[in-house]
Structure formats: structure tokens, C-alpha cells
Description:
Layout: E1 48-52, H1 57-68, E2 72-77, H2 84-92, E3 97-101, H3 109-121, E4 126-129, H4 148-176, E5 179-184, H5 200-219, E6 225-230, H6 247-258, E7 269-271, E8 274-275
Parallel strand pairs: 1-2, 1-4, 2-3, 4-5, 5-6, 6-7
Antiparallel strand pairs: 7-8
Amino acid sequence: MPSPVPRRGISGSCVRTGSPQRSPGHETNGEGDLVTGPESTPSATDRVALVTGGNRGIGFEIARQLGAAGLRVALGCRRPADAADRVTALRDAGTEATAVELDVIAPGSPGRAVATVMEVYGRLDVLVNNAGIAIDAWPSHRPSEPDLDRVRTTIETNLFGAWACVGAAVPAMRANRYGRIVNLSSTMASIELTDDPRSPAYRVSKSALNMLTVVVAEDLRADGILVNAASPGYTRSDMSPKATRPVEDGADTPVWLATLPNDGPTGGFFYEREPLPW
Length: 278
Ligand SMILES: NC(=O)c1ccc[n+]([C@@H]2O[C@H](COP(=O)([O-])OP(=O)(O)OC[C@H]3O[C@@H](n4cnc5c(N)ncnc54)[C@H](OP(=O)(O)O)[C@@H]3O)[C@@H](O)[C@H]2O)c1
């Protein structure tokens, strides 16, 4: 994966933020958490998070940090048996953790994964759409000479996979009138910041994921479910082996968005906990 475009200032950012709608009669505890009515924030130890692609890279670190914050964590993995050591590491650190089978592009898999989470924990509060692929780095793929098979494969995972997981997770969140959805986007998705043609399929897929973030956030405004996109930054992982930014830093903004108080932003795009231009 190529290095990302350098981050510019965020003036002119068109990030959309705002509090979710509330029913009359709800009160907050001073930290933005509702303390009356059906949208009361469950305690951290009651909350359950599903992290897609949670078996390695930024996804595993997001799971680790959510566990350290007290949440129960399900690692969504294509091969859960291979993630046994990861589950053990989380449990050794005091986190209630499990691995669930989840291939975000396999028909029915997101629904089955959510059903498994519900069987094991009885609720689902947080979905982190972290699973992603980057398979069209320059110079092998120019947008003016498109390899549409690679474009389709990229969009299938990075957009449709995340969308399918949203569809599977929202009913469980709606039932509790509480939810947080975080979509792992990229600075490379920013139309305003893009000044080179590298990785066109990846960029397009993540820009579309940003729009998905906005429309789902609008759809769920009245349901107590906050939906945001996060750029982890150019972070060292199998996807970006030359990066120097540690996964601890890359996971910070997604974890912040996954644990927002009820009056936190929704429909936004963030890096380092600050709005990023679309
Ligand atoms: N690293 C960066 O510099 C960077 C920068 C900006 C944004 N991001 C985004 O951050 C997210 C995590 O990136 P990363 O660097 O941690 O990547 P990574 O190390 O390559 O890990 C990717 C994860 O996604 C999973 N995955 C891929 N396709 C899947 C599918 N169909 N179903 C379920 N899981 C699937 C992989 O599972 P397997 O182990 O089964 O392959 C793996 O767990 C991605 O969305 C990426 O686009 C990364």
C-alpha cells in the first residue's frame, strides 16, 4: 500500500456532526450520557463489541483497547480457530473475549456472526467495521486503465462487507436503543486531500464507505446509535508494513468513536479524534 497523502489543515472541513435526536424527558449526567429513558448508556462491562477482521493488525488492537476499557469483545475472523491465541491473550489480560466466524463478503456470514454474539453475550452494542483490503497500489493500477475485477473485489469487501455487517448488527442495537458503529476509512478516502491517483479502487471504496457512514447515521439518528468513520492513519500492519505509526495509535480514534457518550458526534469522519475533510 502506498504512503497516504500528507494531512493538511482541516479548515473547510465539511464533517457532519451532531447529537442524535432524543425523546422529551431524557436527562444527561453532565458527561452527555443519558441517565433516564430507554437510551441510558449501558455500563462498559455490560457492553459487547464485535470487531470485524479482529484477528490481526489494527482490528486486534481495537479489540484489545475496547477490552481494556471493560467491554466484552467478539473477534470477527474468517478462521476463528486460528485466532485462539489472540482470544487467550485478551482473556489473560482480563477481557471477556471470544472469536466468531465472520467473512464479511460471504452470504449470510454477518447474520450468523451476530446471532453467535447474541447467543454468547445476549446483546450487541458496538460494531467496528475494520475488515478491509488494499490490492491496487501504484503503479500496477491506474484509474485511467481500470482493472475492474480488482475494483469489484475491493468494493465488495470494503463497502458491501461493511454494509452487510451494519444490516446484521442494527436490529440488536435498536432493541436496546443504544449502539456505536465505527467504519475504518482512510485519509486516502478524502476527496479534498487527494492529489495523486494511487490505489484508485481502495480510495473509491473508502470514499463510498464514508457516504455509507453519513446515510446510516442519518437513518439511525432517532435510535440512539451513533455512526462515524475513522482514519487510523498510516499504521504499521500487514497492509502497511513500511509505516512507522504503531497500532496503538491507529486504534485510538476508532476506540474513542466506539465508546462515545450519547451526545457525541454522528455522521462524522475523524483522524486523531479531530474532524477530517471529506
Ligand atoms: N494500515 C494502514 O495504514 C491503514 C490506513 C488507513 C486505513 N486502514 C484500514 O484499517 C483497517 C485495518 O487495516 P490493517 O492495516 O489492520 O489491515 P491488515 O493487517 O491487512 O488486516 C486486515 C484484516 O481484515 C480482515 N479481512 C479482510 N477481508 C475480510 C473478509 N472478507 N472478511 C473478514 N475479514 C476480512 C483480515 O482477515 P484475514 O486475517 O482472514 O485475512 C484481517 O483481519 C482496514 O479497513 C484498512 O483499510 C489501514
